[in-house]
């Protein structure tokens, strides 16, 4: 059965800690996604067809104030009410907390697969509890999600390690993809991809470049190895101001296309 995936842009970087830019990402990813330079087929043979199996909602209007969390959560909840799965384009990683909040109200067995250089488990960052450095702390504290696998992590700090241990987070470095693939969850899964989890050689267009990361193929292997059903996903932290010839926008579009295809055709 073919499902409809809703494609939603969340153009905000108000909770970025270092530099702005990801608010411009949804437009850049969309333009790479539908570029005439490629075709709309994913590797599993699924053809992405706007208005058939992909409903592009455009960008959700945000105000860059604390009300944005509610705006993001209700935009996602409205799509879940229609029986759709949502593929969200960030924006910085702060959007994942309100998105997952909507999902966790719908699914009480939600498990998260998280690709990133950073664990994003700070209790607060520079006084901001909703910083892009904090979404998984908020998710574990405030939602029913109780299983989190992180892959590509290479900037762990003592307070975040303590948080990860307290909540039983499964953390894998970029060298442990094979091991991580064996630990991926069954059941109902949400996938969140921070592009800085990839090596800057593949994805230079991010605000926080961390060498020694994952390849594009590593991330595709991780997605393919998830035994559970993927009910939602996001691709975040593209910073077009830091990109090199649109390379990272192309990677974001590739990952978005493959995630959409799995959600359209998968269980
Ligand atoms: Mn990151
Ligand atoms: Mn992140």
Outline the secondary-structure elements.
Blueprint: E1 5-10, H1 25-33, E2 54-59, H2 68-81, E3 85-90, H3 96-106, E4 110-115, H4 135-142, E5 147-151, H5 158-166, E6 170-172, H6 177-182, E7 188-194, H7 216-225, E8 229-236, H8 247-265
Parallel strand pairs: 1-2, 1-3, 3-8, 4-5, 4-7, 5-6, 7-8
Helix pairs in contact: 1-8, 2-3, 3-4, 7-8
Report on the architecture of this protein.
With 267 residues, the protein is an alpha/beta fold. The protein has one domain (5-265): Arginase, Chain A (3-Layer(aba) Sandwich), CATH 3.40.800. It has helices at 25-33, 68-81, 96-106, 135-142, 158-166, 177-182, 216-225, 247-265, and strands at residues 5-10, 54-59, 85-90, 110-115, 147-151, 170-172, 188-194, 229-236. Helix 1 links the parallel strand 1 (5-10) and strand 2. Helix 1 packs across helix 8 (247-265), helix 2 (68-81) runs parallel beside helix 3 and helix 3 runs parallel beside helix 4 (135-142). Residues 116-118, 194, 196, 208, 237 line the site of one manganese (II) ion.
């Amino acid at each position: 059965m073919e499902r409809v995936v809703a494609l939603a842009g969340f153009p905000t970087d108000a909770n970025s800690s270092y530099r702005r830019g990801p608010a411009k990402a949804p437009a850049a990813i969309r333009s790479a996604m539908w570029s005439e330079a490629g075709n709309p087929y994913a590797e599993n043979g699924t053809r992405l067809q706007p208005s058939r199996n992909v409903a592009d909602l455009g960008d959700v209007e945000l105000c860059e104030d604390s009300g944005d969390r509610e705006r993001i959560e209700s935009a996602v909840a409205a799509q879940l009410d229609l029986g759709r799965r949502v593929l969200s384009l960030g924006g910085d990683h702060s959007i994942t907390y309100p998105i997952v909040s909507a999902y966790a109200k719908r699914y009480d067995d939600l498990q998260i697969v998280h690709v990133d250089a950073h664990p994003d488990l700070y209790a607060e960052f520079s006084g901001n509890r909703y910083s892009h450095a904090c979404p998984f702390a908020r998710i574990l504290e405030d939602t029913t999600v109780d299983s989190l696998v992180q892959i590509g992590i290479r900037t762990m700090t003592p307070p975040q390690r303590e948080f990860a241990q307290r909540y039983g987070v499964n953390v894998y470095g970029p060298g442990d993809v094979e091991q991580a693939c064996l630990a991926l969850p069954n059941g109902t899964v949400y996938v969140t991809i921070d592009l800085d989890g990839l090596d800057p050689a593949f994805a230079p267009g991010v605000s926080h470049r961390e060498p020694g990361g994952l390849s594009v193929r590593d991330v595709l292997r991780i997605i393919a190895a998830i035994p559970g059903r993927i009910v939602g996903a996001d691709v975040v932290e593209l910073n077009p101001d830091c990109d090199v010839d649109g390379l990272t926008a192309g990677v974001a579009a590739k990952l978005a296309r493959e995630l959409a295809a799995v959600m359209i055709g998968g269980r």
